[in-house]
UniProtKB/TrEMBL annotation:
<comment type="function">
    <text>Catalyzes the phosphorylation of pyruvate to phosphoenolpyruvate.</text>
</comment>
<feature type="domain" description="Pyruvate phosphate dikinase AMP/ATP-binding">
    <location>
        <begin position="627"/>
        <end position="949"/>
    </location>
</feature>
<dbReference type="InterPro" id="IPR006319">
    <property type="entry name" value="PEP_synth"/>
</dbReference>
<keyword id="KW-0808">Transferase</keyword>
<keyword id="KW-0460">Magnesium</keyword>
<keyword id="KW-0418">Kinase</keyword>
<protein>
    <recommendedName>
        <fullName>Phosphoenolpyruvate synthase</fullName>
        <ecNumber>2.7.9.2</ecNumber>
    </recommendedName>
</protein>
<keyword id="KW-0547">Nucleotide-binding</keyword>
<comment type="similarity">
    <text>Belongs to the PEP-utilizing enzyme family.</text>
</comment>
<keyword id="KW-0732">Signal</keyword>
<dbReference type="Pfam" id="PF01326">
    <property type="entry name" value="PPDK_N"/>
</dbReference>
<dbReference type="InterPro" id="IPR002192">
    <property type="entry name" value="PPDK_AMP/ATP-bd"/>
</dbReference>
<feature type="signal peptide">
    <location>
        <begin position="1"/>
        <end position="26"/>
    </location>
</feature>
<keyword id="KW-0067">ATP-binding</keyword>
<keyword id="KW-0479">Metal-binding</keyword>
<dbReference type="InterPro" id="IPR013815">
    <property type="entry name" value="ATP_grasp_subdomain_1"/>
</dbReference>
<comment type="pathway">
    <text>Carbohydrate biosynthesis; gluconeogenesis.</text>
</comment>
Length: 975
């Protein structure tokens, strides 16, 4: 009761502080510069983020530091109070500096409404203190009494006793909970591996010659590195400062602790609640096994298996503190494996495959992969016992293992990226946190082993990458073919505010969701292969590849260099300096008449006289490019073919837009339409008088901005609004403004035979309010005149002035998950296979989300290419707008029943769509769909357009090796 009372008092005190501070500090969010200034002040403040120290007594009283709680009311706790501005920052920005656990309730620390941000910030604070000499406590880290270690540890145990009692949380948040144990004190725990990496980073930051040793310690730490650090100190003793010498000595002590042999028996003895249980017996058997066999291969295999078994059996153990002890054992096992994995040096292919399988098993046990994901790939990775495998089978193993590395890294990013993005705005050192977590994980050794297998397979298949002089090139993989020449731009960080150029080649951590034209692209987080950005790249022959984070770091030194970049039809990658280009490669970029590569928007059948709002049931594929764009026409066609799986809808045709454009434009002596055409005419005149293209483009963009703003203010005609009101009631079955709808831009420039236009114009989600719908219609009409949309079509269309928007209005379906079906195996290259990519919530997979992706084979079965790793997803409330929910990854998105339904849908589309639409199109289709309560809903269908020029390029064919995939390789082959 006393503890409950004390905790309640703390909560009340914290609330009172917030109320008092409210009158002093503005509660609007504080900007990054002000927070940065605050952090700088705290670094030089002997109390850091703390105001003073008080005794917090069991009866709720607060006493001076020299006036402890009397014995009659209990001992109480002594710790600091936060400065007022720290409390204010917590309220205005949800940023918590210098957190004291004894000052924090379980619910506050778990912070469920903000995706556990507060607990993640606690972990990040620990990291920053290690790499930045105490960070905000640089001078205040020895502020006596600010916190008591024993109180913090007791609070940590209490927190985990509360948290680990919840089965659903442990199952759903296994990775994150296990990671927090590395940072939240709970009875003598430590994170010695992170401390070792942090201390080596601090030394190299202060003394550059130490960088090579730091890299070694970060990437492949070995016990022999201790002597290397000692030798380094002795060699450089004359120039090292006293402070640096102390830091190196501290690093040596940390390394000696890290490499001290782990006493499993002692660990088990300290875990008294685990002894005698099923998992406790397995730990004991593991310990006895190591006494007999100490070979690295045995240790890695057995450690990985035990990690896996602890994770699998954890939910069967119902006692929270026993679970805590098992998780602590799990962390020590991961540390043991991390120290010993590099000592296992396989000499044969079989040995390398076995090591990869063992490390992947361990990654599952440590939470970097989910259990269901392991079920999908275990069969592929467990083939090391075979006598021989074909080159195709080995390549599949390589691709699967490489994917496991990527999924592991993505798990770290999915959990921490949001918090890192916030902190990086005011503390750049926070950016390295994710890299530190990945480097301290099993994924580090798994990635190295996969790279070694990749090098072997590359030699056997002659499918080698040639990427400048960087190491581990086998982790590059082409996503779609093409070639480019231009300046290389390496973006290590957020790409959303990057202004791209159409003649440059970009390396991104993650491509921006509204990417403008570029010459070439490669990404660490590719999102998914059917996002709008990926489809545009594939459509337009823009070379596109995936790479590892390590590859990106290696390429940073070439940022700004002019390079040649090519991806072959089989996915091998070439990236070389301009000076090494061959005559054939230079000839690819000889200036040609651009019009030979451009496409003309067909306007011969367009019907602009129709100014009636249409029932979607009354349009079909024949109306595409005539009354409306292909979205509405094709969805109307699907409504006829699949009436129960397509919503009702309204179509605002081209003619209504064109009719409104004949109104007088405000501030001008001409109509909107005349203004638009005058702009194109003036641009052509400028070109004919030798004005440079950038000047012409700048003129056009300024004029389009004027037009776009004017369209957004355009008055809507009365008869049109009357039609809308009537159509909502008759077709959608609700009054205008009573049902949330999607407003989808649907232009005549989309889904042409040679140009997809995917995602270039505006879609408004779940709009309910009548006024917002009316304003949204004008926003959608204006969207083809945005800079991004204009640049894409200006680059690829002969007549960009003849672009007309229609609008598809459909009621919202708050789907559980949604995504894309391509009626072709993009990864397999088989026309009869399928590719599907789904994310949780609405709008899945199209905006570059990290989506759950499969190849579904034409005969039987399917293959998981990637799991979803998107931490948030969209929901569509009936009140309109969008909301975000937190995703977890312990279950798959798409189930077996869904896959069967999608397969049947694809079969029907292939068999009937061409006949139903009197079309001679025989290619693949791109279908957007979703599931609500396991019911399939169709939202769009369009041709899947690929760049025929890239696919048939003689040069790309010449760099694509002919591979004998049936070649058999004995697994006893030496590496």
């Amino acid at each position: 009761m006393k503890k409950i009372f004390l905790r309640s008092f703390y909560q009340l005190l914290f609330a009172i502080c917030l109320v008092n501070v409210h009158s002093i500090y503005a509660q609007s969010a504080m900007g990054p510069n002000r927070i940065n200034e605050m952090v700088a002040r705290f670094k030089n403040d002997v109390r850091g983020p703390y105001k003073d120290i008080r005794w917090f007594c069991t009866d709720g009283s607060v006493r001076q530091p020299k006036d402890p709680c009397p014995e009659r009311i209990g001992p109480g706790q002594q710790h600091a109070r936060y400065k007022d501005e720290v409390v204010s920052l917590a309220q205005s920005n949800h940023i918590f500096l210098g957190q004291i656990l004894a000052y924090t309730t379980n619910e506050e620390l778990w912070d469920v409404t903000h995706n556990h941000s507060r607990l993640k910030q606690y972990q990040l604070d620990k990291y920053l203190r290690l790499v930045d000499n105490g960070w905000i406590n640089q001078k205040g880290q020895y502020y006596r009494g600010a916190l008591q270690v024993e109180d913090e540890e007791a609070r940590g145990i209490s927190f985990y006793k509360w948290l680990l009692a919840k089965d659903e949380l442990l199952e759903r948040e296994f990775y994150f909970i296990r990671q927090t144990l590395k940072d939240v004190p709970h009875n003598g725990d430590d994170n010695i591996a992170q401390q070792m990496r942090s201390e080596s980073k601090v030394v190299s930051d202060q003394y550059t010659p130490f960088m090579d040793l730091r890299t070694k310690i970060h990437s492949q730490p070995e016990v022999s590195d201790i002597q290397k650090v000692i030798d380094f100190k002795n060699k450089h003793q004359q120039v090292l400062t006293v402070d640096l010498t102390k830091k190196i000595n501290a690093l040596v002590v940390t390394m000696q602790t890290f490499f001290k042999p782990l006493d499993i028996q002692a660990l088990l003895n300290s875990s008294n609640l685990v002894q005698g249980t099923a998992l406790g017996d397995k730990v004991l058997a593991f310990s006895k096994g190591l006494d007999v066999n100490k070979t690295p291969s045995y240790l890695v295999n057995e450690t990985g298996q035990l990690l896996f078994e602890i994770r699998e059996g954890l939910l069967l153990e119902k006692r929270p503190l026993a679970r805590l002890q098992l998780l602590d054992i799990s962390l020590k096992l991961e540390e043991l494996l991390f120290k010993n994995a590099s000592l296992w040096e396989p000499t044969t292919v079989a040995g390398q495959l076995e090591k990869i399988c063992a490390l992947t098993t361990a990654s599952v046990g440590a939470g970097y992969l989910e259990l269901w994901e392991w079920e999908q790939i275990a069969g592929v990775l467990s083939q090391y016992g075979q006598e021989k495998l074909s080159l195709a089978e080995l390549t599949t193993i390589l691709e699967t293992a490489r994917a496991a590395v990527e999924w592991s890294a993505a798990m770290v990013k999915a959990n921490y990226q949001e918090v890192i993005d916030v902190y990086t705005t005011f503390e750049p050192k926070a950016y390295a946190f994710i890299d530190d977590r990945i480097r301290g994980s099993i994924a580090l050794h798994l990635g190295e082993s996969v790279g070694e297998l990749g090098n072997f397979i590359a030699k056997e298949s002659a499918l080698t990458n040639k990427v400048l002089d960087i190491v581990n090139q086998s982790t590059f993989r082409g996503l779609n073919p093409g070639y480019a020449f231009g300046e290389l731009v390496v973006v290590d960080g957020s790409s959303e505010d990057i202004e791209v150029s159409s003649d440059k080649i970009y390396i991104f951590q993650r491509s921006p969701s509204d990417l403008k034209p570029v010459a070439g692209i490669a990404t660490v987080a590719e999102g998914n292969m059917v996002s709008h950005v990926q489809l545009l790249a594939r459509n337009l022959g823009i070379p596109n590849a995936a790479l590892s984070d390590g590859n990106l770091q290696s390429l940073k030194k070439y940022d700004g260099d002019r390079v040649f970049y090519a991806v072959s039809n089989k996915g091998n990658v070439i990236l070389k300096p301009e000076s090494e280009m061959t005559a054939e490669e230079r000839a690819l970029f000889v200036k040609k008449e651009r019009n030979t590569d451009k496409i003309e928007v067909p306007i011969e059948k367009i019907q602009l006289k129709n100014t009636e709002v249409l029932n979607m049931r009354n349009v079909d594929a024949n109306d595409s490019g005539a009354l409306c764009g292909p979205k509405a026409a094709n969805l109307g066609q699907l409504k006829k073919m699949f009436p129960d799986q397509v919503v009702e809808g309204l179509v605002i045709p081209f003619g209504i837009f064109r009719d409104h454009m004949d109104q007088r434009m405000p501030g001008q002596s001409v109509s909107y339409w005349e203004f638009l055409n005058a702009m194109f005419a003036e641009a052509e005149r400028m070109r004919n008088t030798a004005v440079t293209e950038p000047e012409v483009e700048n003129y056009q963009l300024l004029q389009l901005e004027t037009l776009r703003n004017a369209i957004k203010q355009m008055p809507l005609k009365e008869d049109f609004m009357v039609q809308l009101d009537k159509s909502f009631k008759q077709v959608l079955g609700a009054d205008f403004g009573d049902i949330p709808v999607f407003l989808r831009s649907d232009t005549n420039m989309e889904d042409l035979k040679e140009f997809t236009g995917a995602g270039l114009n505006l879609t408004l989600f779940n709009v309910l309010d009548k006024e917002k719908i009316l304003n949204g219609i004008k926003e959608v009409w204006a969207s083809p005149y945005t800079e991004r949309s204009f640049k894409w079509r200006q680059k690829y269309l002969l007549n960009p002035e003849n672009v007309f928007p229609s609008i598809l209005v459909i009621p919202s379906v708050d789907v559980d998950y949604s995504g894309v079906l391509i009626t072709k195996g993009i990864n397999s290259g088989n026309e009869e296979d399928l590719t599907i990519a789904f994310s949780r919530g609405a709008g899945g997979a199209v905006d570059g989300q990290s989506a759950e992706t499969y190849t579904v084979y034409a005969n039987e079965g399917y293959r998981l290419l990637a799991p979803a790793r998107e931490p948030l997803y969209n929901t569509l409330p009936i009140t309109g707008g969008t909301a975000k929910k937190v995703a977890t990854f312990q279950t798959r998105v798409v189930n077996e029943k869904n896959i069967r339904e999608i397969k049947n849908l694809a079969k029907t589309i292939r068999m009937t769509l061409a006949d139903e639409t009197n079309s001679d199109y025989d290619g693949a289709y791109d279908v957007e769909l979703g599931f609500k309560d396991d019911k399939l809903w169709l939202f769009q269908i369009r041709p899947f357009v690929e760049n025929k020029k890239a696919l048939s390029s003689g040069y790309l064919e010449s760099i694509t090796p002919k591979i004998n995939t049936g070649k058999e390789i004995p697994l006893s082959t030496k590496l």
